[in-house]
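Researcher: Good morning. I'm working through a list of sequences from a screen, and I'd like to move beyond sequence-only analysis. For each chain I'm collecting a predicted structure so we can compare shapes side by side. This is the next one on the list. No need for commentary yet; just the structure.
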Amino acid sequence: MPKIEEKRNFVYIKTFKTLALSTTGEFCKLNCPHCRKHYIKKMFDISKFSEYKTNFESDLYDNNYINSFFNYNSFLISGGMNKDLEIPIEKFENFYLFLKKNKKLINFHTGFLKEEKFYIFRYADAISLDLIFSNEAIKNIYKTKKTKKDYIKYLDSVINFCEKENIDCKIVPHITIGLNFGAPSEEKDLIKYISNYKNLKMIDKIVLNILKPNTNISFYYSPDINYSKEIIVYARSMLNKKLIFLGCMRPSGKYRKEIDKFSLIEGIDGIVNPSFEYRPEYSLYENCCSLFSLGL
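Model: Good morning. Structure tokens for this chain:
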């Protein structure tokens, strides 16, 4: 394995300055067992903003909901998926134009967006892509016939489009450890694939999430903590020139405290909402981790 070449400055990430918006409200066709709409229920409904469209300038100060816009530097655009694992982010182009005019950063979480809708990426500063290499996990979690080849193809398509159109954004792979009901889910193969990817210029970081337990499903557990540690160590050694962040989805309680402390010791570059206190030697970052190093 490659040797870690340098000591990194740890990034303490609290996402106070990023507002998460759902393009589907609380609706999700899939209602997958690892989410159960938990995350989109915490997002603001983008229609509450976008309904103003080109009238933002005149209406902005008369609406408390829209007023909160000025408290944020950046926006995560996500939402529920349809049966094709697509999130309809393209429906709110006028709002994205407004965000860019006001110098806000945008992170798109897209699912499998159809290629004819890729034009919306012109507004992106970052594009967060869920990558999965376990065909069994894909089948069990998303109830789809897609395979890891589809995820590879989608990654290639997004990068090729952004390069062709000279879109200056970062592609941020998200990997969920233990996605297949807590069982190993070919994470090492996926990390190795990323480390050898033919075009790493647009990929400057990855995000590691850890499956949270679902108390409504008796066989749905978080991965063994030692396995999660093994994947973290492997990722750090294979991607020694890339940033690695521990993302917002991970178990709570004792598991979270132990894995956070372990990640800090093992040289993970940053953690979202750490379970330990901030220290002056850390770099504080208050936006979505996918947007780190993009000017905020």
